[in-house]
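MODEL INPUT / OUTPUT PAIR
PAIR INDEX: 1
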Amino acid sequence: MSSKRYFCARTALRFAQKRPLGNVKTSICPVYFSHLNSIARKARIQPKEIGKVAGKTLYEKIWDSHTVCKLPTGQTQVFIGLHLIHEVTTAPAFDMLREQGLDIAFPQRTFGTVDHIVPTDLRSRPFLDSQAEELMQALERNVGEFGVEFFGLDSKRQGIVHVIGPQLGLTQPGMTLACGDSHTSTHGAFGTLAFGIGTSQVRDVLATQTMAMDKLKVRRINVNGALGTGVYPKDVILSVIRKLGVGGGKGFAYEYGGSVFDRMNMEERMTVCNMSIEGGALVGYVNPDSTTFEYLKGREFVPKGSDFDKAVAYWKSVASDADAHYDDVVNMDGAEIEPTVTWGINPGQAVGVSEKLPLPEDLADPEGARKAYSHMGWQPGNPVIGTPINVAFIGSCTNGRLSDLREAAKLAKGKKVHTGVRALVVPGSAEVKVLAEKESLHKVFTEAGFEWREAGCSMCLAMNPDKLQGNEICASTSNRNFIGRQGSPTGRTMLMSPAMVVAAAVNGKVVDVRQSL
């Protein structure tokens, strides 16, 4: 092991061992309440006083309470409370553990699922894709050998990692959470510091339950006012990224607030936090409130009875103070946001549906815009409305939850997918699929001409059979429109809300969903 990387490994283990795990099969949060008391004893103050220290953001509070030590490199070694794993970034990490004779420090803090590579239609084993089958077998072998709880294909808990964590109540306020996936920022909707990490960091968390990290600055993004009819959280985050740029969040954690976020439900907040990384922010979060607590109450891994009341008291204490200092503040008017569509090859290249495609010379990155136009085949100055599509995809960790499917079904009911359009609806988890079917949403979709699939990442990325062919244009609820992202090097992706995707599927082209509401 690198002496620098693991300089405080023993300290980290002692740090973690001070926190009794309790019955993690039924409750996660008591770990954190115990942790809070431990931190309080170090500081010689009472737990209830921690939240009263003036002028701190949620980010600072959680960062400080999870700091193990300062490394010689200048980085901070941070304790990770919950580690979520999947089949793609874990196999090499487990191999590294074996090579170095290491075990998982705290297997009770790690949970695994399979999502990226699983087919969403024919799921018989072995998979037709031999590489996918190899990854699946590796994950099954590793979780079995190292004692990690695993939600496999035969589990009712299986699904996209960023859907099942909140769904099961594993994700809770005041935590640090890591996962080997870019969109781990999703969990920040709960007031969680959630980090997307790479394979070597997955190894570090498995081996020490810690990571070496640089502290971020905090940018507060206020969206006030009211969203108009036909405007959804997906439009909010695309507008934020368009305004600040795909690199605007580098070195920052984004704290989202304002009346628009106050009115959002938890699944809507998850959509926004999910795409924080697309704006360059490693972390995006919303302060926990009554909406958060009501969502969590009664979920499988959430404390029950009096423990829940104690948990809520702690969760409230980690919210940003009213007089917290921010390194930057951005204000936006929700009433000015309209249904938004990407036109280029990154999520920041977006326009309101009523706008025309921008001229490269009017943008901060004219060369990037020209590259995007070359790939997409559009002409600057033309309206985005009327752009034909070949494929419609509803799903992903951004928009594959029950509320997304409900909203999409409202638009799909009584309509038919346009001739020549291939349309898929892929639930984000096995439970979402069951709940949607209880509400007969699947019938609405299939009667309209959509394919109804099993849970998985699907067409969000090209690691399973759901892919674009040739230069197809896809109206997608996913989070990335990079070249080749959906499986074809010449394929073209246009990101938009579930409602906008349904409207495009029915009309065979991009339209303004507000005209259908």
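PAIR INDEX: 2
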Amino acid sequence: MIKISDYFFQPYITPQQQRRNYVARNSVQHSSDIAPSDPQPEQAVQLSIETDASLPIDRVAVYFTTDGAEPGGERGQALHGQVVLAQIAGAGDARTAAAPTRRWHAQIPGQVDGALVRYRIDAWSSSDATQRWVADVFDPFTSPAPAGREFAYHVDRRVAPDWTHDAIVYHIFVDRFASAHDQPPIRSYESLTEFYGGTIRGVTEQLDYLTALGVNCLWLSPIMESPTYHSYNPSSYYDVSSRFGTNDDLRALITAAHARGMRVILDFVANHTSNEHPSFIAAQQGDALLANSWYTFNPAYRNGYLTFFDVPEMPILKTDQQPVRDYLIEAARHWLSDFGADGLRLDNVSGPTHAFWTFFQEGVKQTHPDALTLGEVSGDMRDIAAYAGRIDASMDFPMAREIRRVFALRETPLDGLLAMLAEHDASFPSLMSPARILDNHDMHRFLWVAENDTRRLKLALTLLLSLTGIPILYYGTEVGLSQREGAKNTDPYAREPMPWGDRQQADVLAYTRWLIRQRSQRASLRRGRMTRVPLAQAQGAEGQVGALVRWNDFESTIVVFNNGETPARCSIDQRHLPFSWEGDALVEAHLLTPDGILPLDASAEPLLTCALPPLSAAMFLLRAKFVE
């Protein structure tokens, strides 16, 4: 049997670590390394800086402004704003370079609520007036900054919009989802990189299906004009792609979704455009202003210009340039204002600098404070934490990796996943929401990785819809959509057309609808606290039986899992729960098996006991006045 490679989650050097590794090239490296990562009003901020220890650097300075002006300075003298000198803090991180480095710390004083702090960094030799260096000139993902990189953070108490606590998101890959009744049906090709014919009107006509599913927020893959089927390289930031429909079609979809209580978020690509974008064409044809300020042309690059993963159809924007930054912010506002979108899913957040996202977030929130900014941050929890305050929520890829390892690949036991939940949630910035997934358009589908075993999929869905954060369901997962094959680094295989009618697995759909209904109806599952529950007794596969609880002051939901291939029996002593109550509390209980969902006879006093078939779960609802 061939071992399945879950390529998206293979070990790699994370984007933030790659930036830190540039200390050898830049001599002075900051990588937007600040603590705390999301400064609150009046909270001092410590900056960490690394320098090449082989260079005669004995002074490092930070020049900052708080009035919106661009900062500047040299050799400890501020041209605008204020200056603070850094102090040596010890040897640098040995992982960042082959040669030794030196770590420095500088502290910017606490600022008032709403302050925008912009800053630059330089270093020099006090004994040699010719020796001076500026921070982060080169970057592994974006354009060089010969005069040194500008950094920024915003001071506020902002949290994700309140509505996101109740959101259950459905991710639609528009080209593969549905076409309207009077349009050509979705096509099928040998190749998965062709245009299949999904449209916006097709999505609108499936709102009845989505309402019955129970989701209340749609995430649409990019719908802007683009030459590619996936549209992750826009040719226009202001128009719907003609193959998806018209601007009015999108307005009609959003209006119809809102009438049903659904919100709509749109995919937004800030890192790069298409090579058919008018600005890129003009730059290639000799417009010096656009060539210098929008894109990075250099014969040293494979295509003669800087591109995303060397793909010539995806030239990278100079997002640190103010004209580009302003253009992207206005484009984002356009979709929120003119179309009524409720938020943006931000593609490849790790590409542009942290400063860009600081400006972008403020630009969006100034006009649309209730709009969600959901970032695709690659890397580990340190990478995600670095964007606190710059986005409202982040895709939780580290959690997705563990869920797939436990339920789909069966490489690690359930115990390890449950044990990490509290620590993992604590590692998320307190004011940033995690967005949880089983799969998406950039990785193999969960069901394919699970060897098309829908029992594993159902159990993983049970966990997904029981966790804190924002659950996101990728189109087709709810009906057992898999993929035809899965060679390494082949995203299109996860983008098969949506099956309709009798091509759907009805049992998976019914199971998913039930789980979504429970989350929608239970405040404990949407907004409650969460912890692992110790089992008083457990019989079953070692490490594969466990439980968690979600609770608020008046309701709790306990979910017990058997991830083993053999039956299990377990009990929970109410004294081990993080709360207590008086009188009767158990309202209902259900057994969730691969064959269906059944009512369960159970008592909460003194032990809550259940027998679980293989790859099954039990869910208990308790209502009372709980006391911690």
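PAIR 2 NOTE: The first strand starts at residue 28 and ends at 29.
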